[in-house]
Amino acid sequence: MRHLRFPLQQLAWYNPSMNRPALTDEQERALDEQGGIVEGESFVILRTDVFRELLGFDTDDELRQQLQIGFDQADRGQLVDWDPQRIKAEGRRRLQQRSHA
To answer: How do residues 52-90 score in pLDDT, each as one tens digit?
Structure first.
């Protein structure tokens, strides 16, 4: 498996007031009917609240604070290898912890 250094400085900053793509009425209905997640062959659409929940944050401010910690670490050169399997395992662990809380 190839491991990449993940350049956090090049990520777009998460901001709920960013320009959002205009969704069709059909997509809006699908989001409502499917709990805020619509998945297609080559895309996934998430409501902001669902996105935050998947990441384990209750508020936009909490998410911003945690992102800033990561950006500050990257500025200091504290980077880790990109390892999707490790990230997935950590996400599953966090989800399991939350479901048992």
So the answer is: 888 888 888 888 888 889 889 989 998 888 888 888 888
List the structure tokens of 38.
Answer: 């619509």
* Per-domain boundaries in the chain: 22-100
What is the dihedral sign for C-alpha 46, 49, 51, 54? negative
How many Å apart are CA 48 and CA 28, to the nearest integer? Answer: 13
Residue 50: CB partners within 8 Å, gap ≥ 6?
35, 36, 37
Q: Do 30 and 15 touch, CB atoms closer than 8 A?
A: no
* Nearest-angstrom CA–CA distance, 69 and 51: 19
